[in-house]
């Protein structure tokens, strides 16, 4: 799991200990977060796995079950945590997260304000981006959701870099104690335009803001509010297309010159008597790539703006 020393530097422990959080990888699209307990077992279609066998092994280890099946024990990086966490709200995924961290210019030492916390998917990545000397202050109006997020940050080892507050940012704005201290502000709210004036007061000169909204009408109204105190206003939609790459077999035929080509697109293979230029041959292995059938489409719009310099 992620650990932190006195300087809040994030690092992964070399070996798994009792009480650690691990990501159990069964196959590409089947992973789960498991807290290691020496007396517990994990049972799945591959067999029964004793947690006691995991303790002391390095992250990334392949472990066997009682009947010979296996899983991999992975460290809970922010990327993997995003894929296995409990969804208390709609979350941001890796494509949006990586884009906004870059565009908000978040670097080690940055002070970042976030509202709302939600399931904590983005917050975990923000914590790693600001480590070892920065800090993320995240707010959610829902008390139980905030409490669950604190527990998750403890489990993933980023609690020293994240402070979770319960506050209605749309109605109350950000706490005045952060006035002119924030390098970046992120808003994930139903009515972000209500929080934009407060966000502008929190930012340092030339600070950056990002608002995530699923609907273009929210974007339009937010941009109207941003125009008064912000510049360089831009909106992006990040669409990710994933490909499956694997080795398989495809039919081929050879010309007289010996060049291997794909089979012609016909229902019946040509007979040798019908053509003296092609010959039947067995299927040959090839590396093939095709788009994944479950590719994720629209998630939301990311609107960025930079605070105007004070005169």
From TrEMBL:
Annotated region described as Disordered, given as residue ranges: 254-288
Predominant localisation class: nucleus
Q: Which top class of enzyme applies to this chain?
A: transferase
Using the record for this protein, list the coiled-coil segments as residue ranges, or answer none.
none
Binding of S-adenosyl-L-methionine, residues: 119-122, 140, 168, 188
Listed under GO cellular component are: nucleus; tRNA (m1A) methyltransferase complex
Pfam families xref list: GCD14 (PF08704)
Molecular function terms in GO for this entry?
tRNA (adenine(58)-N1)-methyltransferase activity
UniProt lists compositionally biased (Polar residues) regions at: 273-285
The organism's place on the tree of life at top rank:
Eukaryota
One of the GO biological process terms: tRNA methylation
Reaction equations catalysed: adenosine(58) in tRNA + S-adenosyl-L-methionine = N(1)-methyladenosine(58) in tRNA + S-adenosyl-L-homocysteine + H(+)
- Cellular localisation: Nucleus
Q: Which UniProt keywords apply?
A: Methyltransferase, Nucleus, S-adenosyl-L-methionine, Transferase, tRNA processing
Q: Which residues form the tRNA (adenine(58)-N(1))-methyltransferase catalytic subunit TRM61 C-terminal domain?
A: 69-306
* Keyword Transferase (UniProt): yes
Q: Which family does it belong to?
A: Belongs to the class I-like SAM-binding methyltransferase superfamily. TRM61 family.
Protein's name in the database: tRNA (adenine(58)-N(1))-methyltransferase
């Amino acid at each position: 799991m992620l650990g932190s020393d006195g300087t809040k530097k994030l690092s992964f422990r070399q070996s798994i200990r009792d009480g650690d959080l691990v990501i159990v990888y069964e196959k590409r699209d089947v992973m789960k977060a498991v807290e290691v307990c020496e007396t517990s077992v994990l049972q799945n279609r591959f067999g029964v796995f004793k947690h006691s066998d995991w303790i002391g092994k390095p992250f990334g280890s392949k472990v066997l079950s009682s009947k010979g099946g296996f899983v991999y024990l992975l460290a809970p990086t922010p990327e993997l945590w995003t894929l296995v966490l409990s969804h208390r709200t709609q979350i941001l995924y890796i494509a949006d997260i990586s884009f906004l961290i870059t565009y908000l210019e978040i670097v080690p030492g940055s002070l970042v304000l976030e509202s709302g916390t939600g399931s904590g998917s983005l917050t975990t990545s923000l914590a790693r981006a600001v480590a070892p000397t920065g800090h993320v202050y995240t707010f959610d109006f829902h008390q139980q959701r905030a409490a669950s997020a604190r527990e998750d940050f403890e489990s993933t080892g980023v609690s020293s870099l994240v402070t979770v507050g319960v506050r209605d940012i749309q109605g109350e704005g950000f706490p005045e104690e952060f006035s002119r201290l924030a390098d970046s502000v992120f808003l994930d709210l139903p009515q972000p335009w209500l929080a934009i004036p407060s966000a502008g007061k929190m930012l340092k000169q030339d600070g950056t803001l990002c608002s995530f909204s699923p609907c273009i009408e929210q974007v339009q109204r937010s941009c109207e509010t941003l125009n008064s105190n912000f510049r360089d206003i831009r909106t992006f939609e990040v669409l990710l297309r994933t490909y499956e790459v694997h080795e398989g077999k495809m039919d081929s035929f050879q010309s007289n010159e010996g060049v291997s080509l794909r089979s012609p697109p016909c229902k019946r293979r040509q007979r040798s008597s019908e053509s003296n230029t092609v010959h039947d041959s067995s299927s040959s292995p090839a590396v093939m790539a095709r788009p994944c059938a479950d590719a994720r489409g629209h998630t939301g719009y990311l609107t960025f703006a930079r605070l105007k310099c004070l005169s």
